[in-house]
Design goal:
The chain is of the alpha+beta class. The chain contains 19 helices and 24 strands. A 5-stranded antiparallel beta sheet has the order 2-1-5-4-3. Strand 4 and strand 5 form a beta hairpin. The chain is elongated.
């Protein structure tokens, strides 16, 4: 409660501050109008600069479109010239000089941007030109920059700077293209000339009071065209602001600086042409920008004082309104936080309720089993008091209850993925028949369950408990998809995949498989969700009706077992889930033979060490092995076990629990024991194996608690039968 009062006090102080702040702003707005005027002037200046830049960017975009069209005309002309001369040798071009020259004349006449067109051979001499016939073949272009550039393999269009020669009274620039044969060997150059004055009409139409210059500049500073053209240099100086700007921002940019050639401060915006080292730029003198800004500021001075006063009165009202809105928003946020806390508490309550239902169901089943064991044990005890042998009915009932309890714990561990797979040779048909009643109970009375078994079904190597869980998981999903009843079919068949196929987004390798299909006539799965159903926490069920873990566990189990799973579904018609388990043949089937009841009456020889921290479990295992004729040593922890291993060189088998005290697990004990006794066989006992990362070597065994005496003796016999061990 004290912390709540502290929070309320802080909120009260904050509220008082929000009340005083608008009053202070109102006072300052009257006392310090100069500050407001300066702020308004600064904002007006920034606005004027931004508007000027926006205007320049718009003009640059227009100039960019125009320049792009112009150079596209050069590209079009060059392609037509290339097509006209591609199949002709230099001698054939010279022989057809008159026809080709006339064609080039017509082409340059329809493209106003193109002045002259030249076709030049591989050494720099003209072959044909649009300006004269025959071409002046004595002229040599070999030393010019465009010709040297086009000699380089892979060169593209090259644009030379402005030039002036004796044959032409005005300046011009050259646009050149490489000529090459089918083997990319240099054949010469197609060169077109352009007149910078052709840009002037368009650029002049763009000039306004807010735009003083438009330029077309090559990437190295050579000026191709500019308006106004008075005192236009051939090239920008190397220390020009334009050079520095394109080094930092080579695509587009804007800057304000003093231009060296006339020492006038300008704002310049530029952009590069696509795929060409050419820039268009637009500039305005900053003196004009300041003049426009001063005109606007003068108007503000005439009307500024009353307008400022009115503005800040409005601002005061807006601040007051904002304060009220802030209070309202704060209340809404508090209410939202309360709702979030309530929803989180509800979710936690739902989780606890779900856990309660789970633990309640487990407790109910365990209580029933404990009731059976306690009642039967009481009857056996009374029989012993009367010196009568216990009835087989009582013993069988206790054995049944114990088996049911063990199966329940194994299912819980399998569900939590805390149990390693125990691979066995399994007849899938028999497994499904054994669990058919459980499948029907899971499906419910309104669903017809049909089983179709293949004859001579192949054997598979799989953990039978995990396979049962997978089938029950799929049965539960099929039941939920058939709320109003339907038909579910479990089908087995042998399949041979001759090539790698795709099942549910997972490649299924070629080979022999036992396929288990579960078909239902339910609502189906939307097509966009089929590929996601095996993702963890993804579920198509409504909120609160699924965790999204069931199918991901099925997928993981199948992949861990070397198998695959695929899904085929149609909305409104049903779903087919197919489980593929690889066939086991030959020696593999012999190495994973089904469990056989051990002959616990046979007398055996051999020294066995039992390491178990639970006293009664250690006594039970030790007594069972001694009754079977083995010499047995026992230890309560890994430290005692290691001492006994060192003192008994004839030790053959180590039977150890995985979870041992003092920080040394059964896995660690086995590793250290093998370092001292090469070939030592190890049998692990576990009721809870985290991660299942047990290093089982050939001849080792795994016993899941609880286990019967016959299973214990079977594991020991199997360990002894695998071959010689250290003596």
């Amino acid at each position: 409660m004290e912390s709540v009062h502290q929070i309320e006090a802080v909120e009260h102080v904050s509220l008082r501050q929000e009340i005083y702040l608008p009053r202070l702003i109102a006072i300052l707005s009257l006392v310090l109008p100069l500050i407001i005027l300066l702020a308004a002037g600064w904002m007006s200046w920034r606005t004027q600069v931004r508007l000027t830049r926006d205007h320049l960017e718009g003009q640059v975009n227009l100039a960019l479109q125009h320049a792009t069209r112009v150079f596209a005309s050069f590209d079009l002309a060059a392609k037509q010239v290339e097509e006209a001369t591609l199949e002709l040798s230099d001698e054939e071009i010279i022989a057809q000089d008159a026809q080709l020259s006339a064609r080039l004349d017509r082409l340059s006449s329809v493209l106003p941007e193109v002045e002259d067109i030249w076709v030049i051979d591989a050494v720099g001499h003209p072959l044909v030109t649009s300006g004269a016939t025959p071409a002046p073949r004595g002229r040599d272009f070999g030393s010019e920059d465009f010709f040297q550039k086009q000699r380089e393999p892979g060169s593209k269009v090259f644009i030379s700077g402005r030039a002036l020669d004796d044959a032409r009274p005005t300046q011009y620039f050259k646009v050149s293209y490489r000529r090459q044969d089918g083997d990319n060997r240099f054949r010469g150059v197609i060169m077109l000339t352009g007149d910078p004055r052709s840009f002037e009409p368009f650029y002049l139409s763009m000039l306004t009071d807010r735009l003083s210059a438009v330029s077309l500049v090559r990437g190295d500073g050579a000026i191709l065209a500019r308006v106004p053209s008075v005192n236009m240099p051939l090239r920008l100086p190397e220390n020009s602001p334009f050079w520095r700007a394109i080094q930092k921002e080579p695509i587009s940019g804007a800057f304000v600086d003093i231009v060296p050639n006339d020492q006038v401060e300008r704002m310049i915006v530029y952009r590069s042409l696509p795929n060409l080292p050419i820039y268009v730029s637009a500039a305005v003198e900053m003196s004009k920008v300041r003049m426009i800004w001063m005109e606007g500021l003068a108007a503000h001075l005439w009307f500024g004082l009353p307008a400022t006063l009115a503005l800040f009165i409005i601002a005061l009202a807006a601040i007051s309104q904002a304060k009220r809105q802030a209070i309202t928003l704060d209340e809404l946020q508090k209410e939202a936080r309360r709702r979030v806390f309530a929803e989180e508490a509800l979710r936690q309550a739902n989780k606890m309720e779900a856990i309660g239902r789970l633990t309640g169901g487990v407790a109910h089943d365990f209580n029933n089993l404990l009731q059976v064991m306690l009642g039967r044990l009481s009857r056996i005890h009374k029989s012993a008091e009367r010196n009568e042998p216990p009835t087989l009915r009582d013993i069988d009932a206790m054995q049944f209850a114990i088996d049911r309890a063990a199966n329940l714990t194994h299912r819980l561990l399998a569900f939590s993925r805390q149990q390693p797979l125990q691979m066995k040779i399994v007849d899938v048909n028999q497994l499904i028949m054994d669990m058919s009643e459980l499948v029907r109970q899971t499906a419910g009375n309104e669903i017809i369950v049909e089983t179709i078994f293949a004859n001579d079904l192949w054997l598979v190597a799989v953990d039978p408990n995990q396979l049962e869980n997978a089938i029950l998981n799929l049965t539960s999903n099929a039941r939920d998809a058939m709320q109003e009843g339907g038909r579910m079919t479990l089908r087995t068949v042998n399949v041979t995949l001759s090539a790698t196929t795709n099942g549910g987004g997972v490649p299924i390798e070629a080979g022999d498989y036992v396929r288990i299909s579960l078909e239902d006539t339910g609502s189906g799965i939307p097509p966009d969700m089929v590929d996601k159903i095996f993702e963890p926490f993804f579920t198509t069920k409504p909120i609160g009706q699924g965790t999204g873990l069931g199918l991901s566990m099925v997928y993981g189990f199948l992949r861990q077992s070397g198998g695959h799973v695929s899904v085929e579904s149609t909305l409104g018609q049903g779903t087919i889930v197919r489980l593929f388990l690889p066939r086991v043949v030959g020696e593999a089937a012999g190495t994973l033979a089904p469990d056989q009841e051990a002959d616990d009456t046979r007398q055996q020889s051999g020294v066995i060490l039992v390491v178990e921290d639970e006293v009664e479990v250690r006594r039970l295992v030790t007594d069972t092995l001694r009754d079977a004729g083995y010499m047995v040593l026992s230890a309560a922890n890994a430290r005692e076990g290691l001492r006994l291993i060192e003192d008994n060189p004839s030790l053959q088998i180590l039977v150890t629990d995985i979870g041992l005290p003092e920080g040394v697990s059964g896995r660690d004990l086995a590793m250290r024991a093998r370092e001292k006794r090469e070939g030592l066989r190890v049998i692990f006992m576990t009721g809870y194996a985290q991660g299942g990362d047990i290093d089982l070597q050939e001849g080792d065994g795994l016993l899941g608690k609880p286990f019967s005496s016959s299973v214990l003796l079977q594991r020991v016999n199997e360990a002894l039968a695998t071959g010689p061990v250290a003596s």
